[in-house]
Amino acid sequence: MLETLKVKQAAAAKVAPGRDIPVGVDPEAEAMVSLSDVTLKYGDLLALDRTTVSIKPSEFIAVVGPSGCGKSTLMKLVTGLMPPTTGEIIFDGRRVDGPVQGAGMAFQNATLLPWRTTIDNVMLPLEIVQPYKSRFRSHHDEMVAKAQTLLDVVGLGEFGDKQPWQLSGGMQQRANLCRSLIHEPKLMMLDEPFAALDAFTKEDLWEVLQALWLRQRFTAILVTHDLREATYLADTVYVMSKRPGRILRKCDVPFARPRTPEITFDPAFTELVNELRALIAAVRSS
């Protein structure tokens, strides 16, 4: 069943049938992010236990598991917002020993600044992140054009002069994604970015995020409770245990890109989602 779907998806994406390598991922490349036997303790509480993960450049992974398993903690470790108790984390060839440079972040709340227009919100990283910061004024028109292009990609081209309160929740999150990516980060951290949105808006934004990934080919780590979302967006899904968090299973997602909403109705897609659901149910009851 999976093989049949791979052939159909490959034809649609104009790649060779049976190709298992996700679009944009070089299997020979050194890892962009790696965690080697990482453990984290909060006092006597063991939050994360001997976690090892390797993520290639341009790979899109999702992390799923029961609440409190350490998914968000994993993101904080990767970005250097907290140090591991033991183990080593490497990002872009360097050991992580503090907040990393070259990462974008999107969270459940869009957190757009209410006193700035949509396009000014999107441009904010260009004002504070090098090398854009040093030439923001001298290349202002170029920066505006860069922001406008991203807004066009996500369907907000006509809303650049609007204030955040004039945008729907889904539109705010689109703008938030643009802001997270405008400085072309190598790594994108997505912590349940669509959790507060309705099902229809979520699925629209899956397509938006996929389009942005196909355009910029950043490495992405998505934390989500939505197993359909994980399966639609990711190349690889990691299933975590309950606390103390450990990686229990690595599930490769075999569907070629670009993916369309129709894939969510395919039996092979449903089969993989149900497999993930069964794994997490077993974790919760253990």
Note down, in words, how this protein is organized.
The protein is 36% helix and 21% strand. With 286 residues, it is an alpha/beta fold. The chain has one domain (2-102, 186-285): P-loop containing nucleotide triphosphate hydrolases (Rossmann fold). Strands 6-7-8-3-9-10 form a 6-stranded mixed β-sheet, sandwiched between helices. The longest helix is centred in the last third of the chain and has 19 residues, at 267-285. The radius of gyration is 19 Å and the shape is globular.
Largest sheet: 6 strands, mixed
Task: Show unreliable segments.
Answer: 1-21
Q: How are the strands of the largest sheet arranged?
A: 6-7-8-3-9-10
CATH-defined fold name: Rossmann fold
> Radius of gyration in whole Å, from Cα?
19 Å
Total domains? 1
Give the amount of beta strand, in percent: 15-25%
Helical stretch count?
Answer: 8
Order of helices and strands: HEEEHEEEHHHEHEHEEH
Number of strands: 10
Class derived from helix and strand content: alpha/beta
Helix content: 25-40%
Mean pLDDT: 87
Overall body shape: globular
CATH class: Alpha Beta
CATH second-level architecture: 3-Layer(aba) Sandwich
Short overview:
With 286 residues, the protein is α/β, with parallel strands linked by helices. Helices cover 36% and strands 21% of the residues.
